[in-house]
Amino acid sequence: xxKELTRGAGILMPVSSxxxxxxxxxxxxxxxxxxxxxxxAGQKYWxxxxxxxxxxxxxxxxSFSTYAGNPYFIDLDLLIEEGLLQRQEVEMIxxxxxxxxxxxxxxxxxxxxxxxxxFERSDHEKTKEYRDFMEREKDWISSYSLYMACKEHxxxxxxxxxKKDIRDRKMEALISYQVMLEKEIRFWEFVQYKxxxxxxxxxxxxxxxxxxxxxxxxxxxxxxSADVWVHPEQFLLDENHxxxxxxxxxxxxxxxxxxxxxxxxxxxxxxxREDFAWWKKRIRAAARCYDVIxxxxxxxxxxxxxxxxxxxxxxxxxxxxxxxxxxxxxDESIGEAKIIAEDLGVLVPEVGEVLQxxxxxxxxxxxxxxxxxxxxxxxxHNYPKNCVVYGGTHDNDTLEGYYDMLSKxxxxxxxxxxxxxxxxxxxxxxxxxxxxxVANTVIFQMQDILKKNNNARMNYPSTIxxxxxxxxxxxxxxxxxxxxxxxxxxxxxx
Length: 494
Prior knowledge:
The chain has 494 residues and is an alpha/beta fold. It has helices at 29-40, 76-81, 87-91, 104-121, 128-136, 141-153, 164-167, 171-180, 182-208, 226-230, 268-273, 277-289, 299-302, 324-331, 349-358, 399-405, 408-418, 426-436, 446-449, 479-491, and strands spanning 8-12, 45-48, 212-218, 245-249, 259-264, 292-296, 303-308, 317-320, 338-341, 362-365, 387-390, 441-445. The chain is globular, with a radius of gyration of 23 Å.
């Protein structure tokens, strides 16, 4: 299977960041308009962050399910067109505090009541399309919907705090709660049906326009998720289903203290004995959803960091993962989809060896390039062809914010490398050298295309409460900006 990406350029733009009058980006008109904008900008790729339902902290990397879609992304105007909602029902609600910020508190308060109103009016259960959807997604949809119904029933507490019989998935309890929460289960099935209906149509439209969607999947799943509740045997948990060690990473360029994510760690030995069946199913679902799959924290497949549950990230230790054994299983499962390996972090020779043997393109981040060392692997003159270059990621400063953090010496080197004399020209120059590089693929965050400062930063690792909120305003991605990107794409053969 060909694993290199077609030479091209793209934009990292989370669905949540699309313009919308309903508080968060959705799969409606603004998404289709953005696809059209990408075409006019000479782009080939649209990269999104994970699209699953988010839990406490609103992180797309902590989802209730590896298979489900985010209910907030369901477009309300499309539901209005279907006759499932009345316009006044949604326009009377205050969906956000600021136009360029997601107000998750307001979404939590109002979005589900609106979706429940749509559910009450829907006759979807009588349609062949719905029956086909339920058959196609039968491996997860029923258990996920029961999980969400139970979560609501228990005051949205994590499943570990539910009554013991349903927490432990005793057969009698499963049957009892399926009967008791029948209507609520049907609602959550409806939500997923509408999400995937809208996503599949948008994805098809993007492909018709020559745009491939790059989707992000976290290497780990959230502890509070249907994935762990349904399959606790796949994780390193004690007899009460509590983790003894959790995932994270040691101190690195993103955090001096390291990061403690809290995700349970896989029982890799068991997974290998089962021929990685759990992972095969997961990657097949991702391959149906995306054209290119970016595996976040790819290095954890080779060497992972485990932290005792009651200790800080600095007290963790490394252990070896399945490496090429898992990657071979994934390759057998994904068909025509391709994989990007997020290989940032503490690298060891074994990681580099696995990456080389896998054939997957790794990542180069320009914000890591300007430390004054000419041999720095993130400098464009050191790139291999088979890689994806980014200005920065969702975990980084915006380019405009990044320059202010550089030392005087490193800023001078960056300006000399990019051949600019004024700092305000540096963002454009960084974008240009990314496009000019030998790297097959170049991706820049929309915040950097728009020259936003750190007020538009997406995430500060190891913090909670203010992340994942930035949104683009309507018409910010102007024709002028699109034409400039198209010109660069043309000049450098992208």
